[in-house]
Design a protein that fits this description.
By secondary structure, the protein is mainly alpha-helical. It has one domain. It is 73% helix and 0% strand. The longest helix has 27 residues, at 55-81. The radius of gyration is 17 Å and the shape is globular.
Length: 206
């Protein structure tokens, strides 16, 4: 039991550290010498990269952030094969999202976790992830509000997975925690949406 707990905790820590490697900050500093958090919306993520540095760097950021989520869960699956808990993929997925949002390497000020969360969700349950991704893309296409699509997808995924995993309490807790984290990181967007002040995709940041 001690070994199981130790290897699971080690995997969670590794996942957090992986999440803390923020691609948008590193890319923006390497290309322009500026921290992306000092431009646009101030968020260290793909959407702000799109608005401030263009499509090429936004796509690169998006891909890297998604891969972080994928790799964290793959690492947890590998540790499970080495003797860790089978449900260890869930705390690892939560940890990599926390790392992206609150990176230890960048003063605990990171992104909102959407792309990294997508990578995690695809590895947890790719079928449900694709369904909620499609729903999010439809919402974004119709409204041009990235935040609205992101929050809706996070909540929808949590509801579906909580029902499917209801007998695995640690998994349910982690799924709900990831959704809650994403909603919390979008709290400012939610307030602006309610006030009709949220920026639409393609519009310039005021």
């Amino acid at each position: 039991m001690v070994f199981l707990v130790t290897i699971t905790i080690g995997t969670v820590i590794a996942a957090y550290l992986l999440g803390s490697v923020n691609s948008s900050i590193l890319i923006s500093k390497a290309v322009s010498g500026r921290d992306i958090r000092e431009s646009g919306s101030g968020n260290a993520g793909a959407t702000n990269m799109l608005r401030t540095m263009g499509k090429k760097y936004a796509v690169l950021t998006l891909v890297i952030d998604i891969l972080k989520g994928v790799l964290a869960v793959l690492l947890a699956r590998l540790s499970a094969q080495c003797g860790g808990f089978e449900w260890g993929i869930y705390p690892a997925g939560l940890a990599v999202c926390i790392g992206h949002c609150y990176p230890i390497f960048f003063g605990f000020k990171g992104g909102k976790g959407v792309a990294t969360g997508l990578g995690v969700l695809l590895m947890w349950d790719w079928q449900t992830a694709l369904i909620v991704l499609a729903a999010a893309l439809v919402i974004m296409a119709l409204t041009r509000f990235v935040s609205l699509g992101s929050v809706t997808a996070a909540v929808l995924f949590a509801v579906i997975e909580a029902v499917k995993l209801r007998d695995i309490i640690p998994a349910v807790v982690c799924v709900i925690a990831v959704a809650a984290l994403l909603v919390w990181k979008h709290r400012g967007n939610i307030v602006r949406l309610a006030k009709g002040e949220e920026s639409r995709l393609g519009s310039k940041k005021k």
